[in-house]
Amino acid sequence: MKTKKSLISLISLVLMVSLALAGCSSANNGTSQKNTKDGEKQDKPVELTVWGGYPELDPWYKKMAEDYKKEHPNVTINIASFPLRDFEKKVAAGLPSSSAADIVSLNPVIALRFIQGKMLKQAPEDLAQIVTGGNYPELIADRAQVDNVVYGIPHQLGKGVIYYNTKMFEEAGLTEPPTSMDQFLEYAQKLAVKDASGNLQRAGMSLRLTGGGSGLGEKFWTLLAQHGGSIVKEVSPGKYVANYDNEAGLKTLQMYIDMVHKYKTDDPTIKHDAEAFEMELAAFFVRESWVIGDIKAKAPNLEYATAPLPVANVIGMSDFYVTNAAKDKEEAAWDFIRFLMEPENHKQMVTMTGWLPAREDLDFEDFFKENPAFKAFFTKQELHAYPTIPEFDEILTKFADRLSEKGFTDASFVDNPDKMKAFLADLAKDTNAILKKAGHLAE
Predict the structure, then answer these.
(1) How far is Cα 69 from Cα 203, in angstroms, rounded to an integer?
(2) How far does Cα 416 stand from its chain's mean position?
(3) pLDDT (tens digit per residue) in 61-75
(4) Going along 43-166, which residue ranges are E strands?
(5) Which of 51, 147, 264, 328 is the most buried (most CB within 10 A)?
(6) pTM: predicted TM-score of the whole model, two decimal places
(7) Is residue 20 included in any domain, yes or no?
């Protein structure tokens, strides 16, 4: 009997051990299956495409893609950049059909209609917090949002500073750059050089006298902003009115007229812009940060410095957006943007391309020691940006066309403020008519 009981006990023990081992095996198998699924998800090949409108950023994009792949071997990132207008057309065609890149770098004003059409994705909470957490100027953070929801991650900024030839300034007895708009005209007269016949050989200040809306119009707006004016002004939510048919507009237009027609410190027939400055055919002008690299490549021995504009700056910006084309790749797309926005990675955009970051929380003191011309760009100023209305490009283009065809070419404006006022008033009627047609005029 005892032997029988012992046999039963032994059989029970074997069964218990077997069940325990089976349970452990099942648990281990479950864990193994979970790890396998996670591993499969992590190792699944992912191919992302990034589109941009500034080819000069490509070296940074490509380096970041290579560095990201070292940490994420399963992710391949393709970079494609196009001339800006071609890029904007490509995005406009690709987003509605879900055939655009997974990540696009867009001006938030252009992105607005695609957000409203549900073609761009809402940013994850951690990236949204970077935007709204005080790392950006308020204007830039606001432009990244629609109805208080963050969609764009601002990364690139364009703004102007004064580039001036230090040797020419010294020869003219000028010890510092202009710090007021009155000094712009005063300095231009002292720095312009004419031949014995009175023909201009070197511009005092090189003005933008020709070009499309985003060129001529923005440059006029930048100088207009120093007097407190703008192309349009928002007077109530979503309602605007022309804001240059005033004293600010008159002072700005008069400076152009005085420089071109009265004192002849600039002339539309001579070279302009960065080319003129690099060839020492202009003593000073206002332009963005890309000029620093251009000077380094084309005129490395040029003696120059930079200085901030007196009061304000008109900025252009680009934000990263994830598109509806990403679909099952959305998580990877946002993670690459997260990688790009890591402080040390984002700083490389500046050091590699010369374009400015849109944020204010990066430390560039060591960079400034080696590249002092960049420091002026980081001066805090009143900022102006494109308003979030789709008709603004039309407004700025027509504004620029009228300036180049009449405003800058009519010598009868000299010492004739009433005629200039009438011109600006007529121009403002055009601007307000466009606003009214779009339903955005403040009446």
Answers:
(1) 50
(2) 38
(3) 999 999 999 999 999
(4) 46-52, 75-81, 103-106, 145-146, 149-150, 153-158, 161-165
(5) 51
(6) 0.85
(7) no
